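Morning, I've got a small favour to ask if you have a moment. I owe you a coffee for this, so here goes:

…
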Amino acid sequence: MTSRSMGPALLNPSPSFETATSQWIHLVGVGIEIFGVFIIVAGIIWSGRYLLEREIASRYDRYKISIGRSLLLGLEVLVAADIVKTIAIELTFVSLGLLAGLVLVRTFLSWTLTLEIEGRWPWQREPAPAQQTESPRA
């Protein structure tokens, strides 16, 4: 058997270091994506405990806030997965543009969820707790 009949794949059975590294980074990105989706689904399921409370007036608000928080955390993890996966593929202006678009959309969603949950934008300060001041006695 000559080297010509073996073909190029058999002469160099292991892929290049760059290709192998890119594949592993891509797999890590997919794993992070799966984890982000798991966070969202588990958060929605876990939030269901608020629907079983006896207090009817506050259970919807608690349910909504709990789901919003799990969505926020899941979105943050999904943005991280997008960044990792973009690094894994060949960096081009198109891939960076797509990443920028995804990050912008998910950031906007995070901001609007924060506004819905906390009643303020993320860059606004939290209202200071009211301090009781004692009047000086004369």
In short: The two ends are 108 Å apart (CA to CA). The CA atoms of residues 31 and 81 lie 8 Å apart. The chain is about 70% helix and 0% strand.
